[in-house]
Amino acid sequence: MRKCSIKMKVTLWYTGILSVILILITAAVIVYTNMTGLLATEEEVQGAVTGFVGNIRFKNDTYYLDGDTEFYNDGVMFCVYDESGKLLYGSLPVDFPVQTTLQSNTARIVKNHNKEWMVYDGIYSYGQGKALWVRGLTSIHSVESFLSTVRKILLIIFPGLVVLIGVVGYFMTKRALKPVDDICERADKISGGDDLTQRLPLPKVQDEMYHLTVKFNEMFERLQKSFEKEKQFASDASHELRTPVAVLMSQCEYLLEHGELTEDQRQEAEVIMRQAKKMSSLVSQMLMIAREERMADPSQFEDVDMGMLAEIVAEELEFAAAKKEISIHVDVREECFVRGDQTLFMRFLMNLIQNAIVYGRKGGNVWIRITEEGEKIQGEVRDDGIGIGEEHLDKIWDRFYRADPSRGKEEGTGLGLSMVKWIAKVHNGEIHVESSLGKGSRFFFWFPKKR
Ligand code: ADP
């Protein structure tokens, strides 16, 4: 019952309550019909006996019975007895218990086997202590059979009626609650997607659903505002941090180049330098994330030659690669134009190629390939470096996730690939990875070609 949906609960409650009401009404109808049916029969027999007595004329010590007296009239049978209970006229039905005692002026039911009769005995005195009994009786089988027919019909109709009520109730509740399902589905899409500026459409009628939608929209509004505040804070903080970090790095660099340092002091200064570099990379990635919305505005997109960008980035990283004796091979044969933000595409390739170098092996290779394939511009950045363990493969795209912080770059932040993924997404592209530990990694991606 706990897992039962509201639709089911409402249907069960409502079907249950209606069934109870139906049972009560049916029971009341049966009892009432029974009572009124018997009462009517009782009055009918009593009236018939009184009518029958009209055929007897009493005079002093004797009585006369009309010659044309009928002992059966309209379903009622009549018998005449003397004061000692001896049957004088009329006959009884075959199954009627002959010994049934005469009781003056009381209607009652007499049963024998499966048959029932309504009996009324009237006593009429005449002469000197003489009396005649007139018994009227009718089978109440007709009332009984009517009631049993009613019961049978109800037994057949009742379950059908309950099922019908249940089904109709279920569909009515489902229909009434459909807006709730719609609201949930849309709210799910908004909160699951990245666009909190979307709102739920307001229903035309100002009912409960309308108020619920308004509350949801107010909640999205507050969420959006708080996200914007957070982003603004990250943007301001990283912007403010840029200058001190740059000063720290340049001063450190100066100290390392021109300072008269002991070996210990040099090592300390180098630690500061490395940490400052890490901070600088973190600050610039955070700044980019904080400004991502503005940068991903399609109205600001331009034509970008992905092939040319790859060559520029490869050239820029030539020095870092040379330090590890890594050879970079760029394979770009034609112009590969896509539409998007040039800085973001630059960052996209930079993060991938930088990783390929950093996680590459000494004396290894990095292959970069950009090609045009139908409606797409495809590319890949491949290395023969340390590779990524299978258990990390789907997590490396998460912010701040680092497969194994002890390996590779000291200044790593775990933000690079999350940014790469996001850049692919805002340009309607896709990126995937294949890697095996110790053998190397292959990051392959595609973007829609510029039209
Ligand atoms: P980081 O700043 O740590 O490089 P990234 O988001 O760029 O952060 O990458 C996440 C993790 O993915 C890295 O910590 C690294 O372990 C793994 N990774 C990324 N690129 C490669 C690669 N070419 N070869 C091996 N491991 C990689």
TrEMBL record:
* Keyword hit for Zinc: no
Q: Which residues form the HAMP domain?
A: 174-228
The record's PANTHER family line, in alphabetical order, gives: SENSOR HISTIDINE KINASE TRCS, SENSOR HISTIDINE KINASE YKOH
Name of protein = histidine kinase
Listed transmembrane segments: 12-32, 153-172
Q: What is its EC number?
A: 2.7.13.3
Q: What cellular component GO annotations does this protein have?
A: plasma membrane
- Where in or outside the cell? Membrane
Molecular function terms, GO-annotated: phosphorelay sensor kinase activity
PROSITE patterns in UniProt: HAMP (PS50885), HIS_KIN (PS50109)
User: Keyword Membrane on this protein?
Assistant: yes
UniProtKB keywords? Kinase, Membrane, Phosphoprotein, Transferase, Transmembrane, Transmembrane helix, Two-component regulatory system
Alphabetized Pfam families for the sequence: HAMP, HATPase_c, HisKA
Domain Histidine kinase, first and last residues per copy:
236-451
Q: What is the top EC class of this enzyme, as a single word?
A: transferase
Superkingdom, according to UniProt? Bacteria
